[in-house]
Amino acid sequence: MSRIPDDQITKIKQTVSLLNWIESEGYEPKKEGNDYVMSCIFHNDKTPSLKITPRKNLYHCFGCGASGSIIDWVMKTQSLDFRAAVAHIEQHSKIANHPPQATTTPTAQSSLVANITHSDQQTALQGVVDYYHTCLKNNPEALAYLETRGINDSELINTFQLGYSNKSLTSILAAKHTKTGKQQRQLLQASGALKPSGYEHFAGCIVVPIHDVDTTVCGIYGRRIQKYSDPKHLYLPGSHAGVWNPAGFHNTKILILCEALIDAMTFWVNGFKHVTASYGTSGFIDDHLNHLKINAIKNVLIAYDRDKAGNEAANQLAEKLSKENIHCYRINFPKNMDVNDFALQMAPTKKSLALVIEKAEPMLGAPPLTLSNDHAVETQVSTLPSLAAKVAESAAEQRHPNAESSPLTVTDTDVSLTCGGRYYRVRGLQNNTRLDQLKINLLVKRNDETHYIDHLDLYQAKARKHYISSAAEE
User: Fold this and answer.
1) Closest by alpha carbon to 176, among 166, 186, 168?
2) Do residues 132 and 207 lie in contact, with contact meaning Cβ atoms separated by under 8 Å?
3) Distance of CA 189 to the CA centre of its chain
4) Would you give the distance in Å from CA 118 to the centre of its chain?
5) What Rg, from alpha-carbon coordinates, does the chain have?
6) Does the predicted model carry a pTM greater than 0.70?
7) Which of 5, 19, 226, 453 is most enclosed, with most CB atoms within 10 A?
8) DSSP state of 226
9) Is 168 helix (H, G, I), strand (E, B) or coil?
10) Helix orientation angle between 140-148 and 121-137, rounded to the nearest 10 degrees
């Protein structure tokens, strides 16, 4: 995130009247010589000990020591960090040539303020979702984060109302010392959007609302985007409820179940719409099971992370679902990899995901998976040829009209190539049935019959380097 320019900060401190700002919040400082005094709002002040000095545009309390500029005032009274306080001041003052940092539309602001004037937590929560949704669309940093995860997709963002908390939520509320401001904050705290301290629960997070079938917001997931911010994963306080993407359960007998929402969204943006996510390895809840039953889902493809926790959770879930006569299949990724990791590293992404779906392994005696029995899923999965067949196809495309002149020869067991005075022969290619290895037997030979042969895994940099150096030495 770029640093706020010093001249922008200086202009705020010099041109926005601290006295006028405090008076606009409903306080009534009394003039005392060239200054103004009032009871300090930062401690239990029985006699006016807070002095406001218009000439310097500063305040100072002789009781508790609170002091500073208008930016400090806003940070303390609105519970904002420095950047959000600057944005709040610019948003509510008339400083020329300095657009607000935290851009949101007036419609989104007025909608949120209107929603939280009701004594309805659900209405207030939907207002927060709407506000965050607008913030995301106007925040390059948040959109750039989605880009790094391969899910910066306008259809995804709009369909599921993805949002971003830029820490400006409280800046559009009434001042917290006012009756309205207190009521607004109490309602947002009750809904879980604000912490008891007054800070935003999802500050700095990409937020994903969990809507139930009747569009009720029954949960929110937050993913922090700053590298060193913890915790990385947040939910609304309380127990989990609802399912993400309830439409994905419709008109299908096969459902993909991921461990995390970003993994599920990765499938979704690549065309695999019949997907949802549990809330972590222990986050498969009754709502998930009820949706499976109601929609008569017969097959669940478990796409949990390929690590110890993911494997154990997948096995436990398969046992649970098998008791409900639901067949489970394990989608296997390379070791210690999740859906999003895999999708970012494999190209083309859609075909790579289609391949792991095709090769999902039956669990607990489930019958072999037949995608053609489910048109909704089968139409999304391209039946991919084997790796050896793809090599043969590539060779055919490169072959000249005179087949004997082709430098590449493919048989059932070997792939051979003559190039640069070297002859290369690959064996064992057809034995690679997993995506996390490419083990072959490779022979390289010169015209004078000097040669080198060894086994190696082409996915291993160390193995490749060893082969190159050994072959060169030979």
Assistant:
1) 186
2) yes
3) 24
4) 31
5) 30
6) no
7) 19
8) S
9) coil
10) 80
